[in-house]
Design goal:
The chain has helices spanning 2-36, 44-58, 60-65, 81-116, 128-150. The chain is mainly alpha-helical and 167 residues long. It has one domain. The protein is elongated. The two termini are 37 Å apart.
Length: 167
């Protein structure tokens, strides 16, 4: 199970990398066309908007798997280890619930967009498949968060993500 979740998370992160490159190339072409040729890419704004939404949600599973979410540990330093474990469990439960809520609401929005036939303004690209993909990516992140509650191997941070940031 943990290998499957890791593979899915890595595949979603790889897909996010492809989307990021496409967003960068679209932005580059739009800026180049706008300022040097006075001919911007007409569909750039809507493609970048859809791509950015995908980027956030496609990266959510790997971030959850690596426990890379932002955490404030003011109370952790003062609490005994047993209380810290309870804090961690509560945070994991809240994270799983919140990500599940995001996935559910995105799926609901995708089905509403499908029913309404909502499309982008310039290219008339249907929006619901993109939002449905966002919902599936959020559902995978929720599955990782739920699995972390039951599979001890998934609760360990990897060394590259276990570095405290100094402010």
């Amino acid at each position: 199970m943990e290998a499957l979740l890791k593979n899915i998370s890595n595949a979603l992160a790889g897909f996010a990398c492809v989307i990021l490159v496409l967003v960068m190339l679209t932005t580059f072409a739009d800026v180049l066309g706008r300022y040097f040729f006075n001919a911007p890419v007409t569909f750039a704004v809507e493609m970048i908007q859809l791509g950015m939404g995908l980027l956030v949600l496609l990266g959510l599973a790997i971030t959850t798997l690596e426990r890379g979410h932002i955490a404030v540990d003011i109370a952790d330093t003062l609490a005994p280890p047993r209380v810290r474990r309870m804090f961690a469990l509560f945070a994991s439960l809240c994270g799983a619930a919140f990500i599940s809520l995001i996935a559910w609401r995105l799926w609901d929005r995708a089905m509403n967009f499908r029913r309404d036939g909502l499309a982008t303004d310039v290219l008339f690209v249907q929006i619901w498949p993109v939002v449905a993909l966002m919902a599936i990516a959020a559902a995978m992140a929720a599955a990782v968060a739920i699995a972390q509650l039951f599979i001890p191997a998934l609760t360990k941070k990897t060394p590259e993500f276990d570095v405290d940031m100094e402010v």
